[in-house]
Design brief:
It contains two helices and no strands. The protein is mainly alpha-helical and 51 residues long.
Length: 51
């Protein structure tokens, strides 16, 4: 997903590869952060008995 975002950003938007790779890094970190946050919410819900 991040690789496709980088290629899109480079070819379609005409940005440099540096900008494109920065975007790919941002997409990757956002996805990992969302996964971590979702796991945390699930863990807290299970602990309270909501899940």
């Amino acid at each position: 997903m991040a690789g496709l975002a980088a290629v899109f950003w480079h070819w379609v938007r005409g940005k440099s590869w540096d900008d494109s790779l920065s975007l790919a890094f941002t997409v990757t970190m956002s996805a990992l952060g969302a996964q971590f946050g979702a796991a945390l919410v699930r863990r807290r819900a299970a602990r309270r008995g909501d899940g």
